[in-house]
Amino acid sequence: MTNDIHWKQVSLLLFLEASVAISWIAYHEYQPEILDQFGFSNYMLEFAILQALVLMITPPIAGHLSDKIRNKGGDRLPIINIGVSVAAMIFMSVAASIYWNIDGWMVYLIPVFVTFWLVSMNLFRSPAISLIETFVPQAKLASVIAVFVLVFDLIYALEPSIVDLIQFFGSSATFVLGGVLVFVSGFLLMRSFKNYDFEAENKNFDNDTEDGKSDFLRVITTGFAYGLVLTGIFKLLPYLLGQENSWIAHTT
Question: Are 62 and 122 a contacting pair, CB within 8 Å?
């Protein structure tokens, strides 16, 4: 691998990841409304469990398949292409369902759409984000990752403004825009890979490490610990503080 960062591919990958983050914000904003519209409001807990299971299972499987393809001298593009295409298609399907307010047996397509959307959105993220190692030399990897973290933090810092914007557009238009955003960002990323020699870059990356392998256990442990800390700070702590304030208000 050269000492140069492939900024074109990195920028398009960042665009795709930003599109995914915005799409998740839109999904979480409109999910309760969509479930209520089609008579599934009593299944909020089941959908939350489904989402948690998909988030736990799909990324590792997608990453494993991606690594197997890479180790056999292939590239990750088919997985990314399928995930992006299905996610965009389901965005459009949900938008059409909301616009025409489907009824009868067709409402049972909504849980199917939600499930496939969750799977497809998580199917391509692991293979896509792992492409960073192909476009960035080891010595500069931390700097590029910092840019990704900064963009993600900025998007979620602007979440209230993003929510106001998608509420202005409405649910149907938001899902159309989400589908277009994911598809366009994925298409541009895939197009930038045309005539790209992944096999040569993979070999260069392997030569850039000590033995061509990563410390999988350390990665999983660090990720799990990071997830626990974030969950504690952003989910559990506010809940506990809210419960404490409710108890104080009740006793006084």
Answer: yes
* Residue 188, both tokens: 């541009």
Return the domain boundaries, the chain: 7-214, 216-252
Tokens, residue 225: 């610990």
Find out whether 198 and 75 touch, Cβ atoms under 8 Å.
yes
Please state whether the predicted TM-score (pTM) of the whole model is above 0.70.
yes
| Domain at 7-214, CATH from 3.40.50.2000, 2.40.10.10, 1.20.1250.20, 3.40.630.30 | 1.20.1250.20
Q: Which two tokens stand for residue 124?
A: 């391509």
**If we measure between CA atoms, which residue out of 125, 145, 121 comes closest to residue 135?**
145
Main-chain phi, psi angles of 130, to 5 degrees: -70, -15
Chain segment 95-143, per-residue pLDDT in tens: 888 888 888 888 888 888 888 888 888 888 877 887 887 788 878 888 8
Q: Please check whether residue 87 is in contact with residue 117, taking contact to mean a CB–CB distance below 8 angstroms.
A: yes
Tokens in use for 211? 């033995």
| List of residues 6+ apart from 23 with CB closer than 8 A | 87, 91, 121, 178, 181, 182
Q: Say if residues 189 and 16 touch (Cβ distance below 8 Å).
A: yes
Output the six-digit token pair for 223.
């990720």
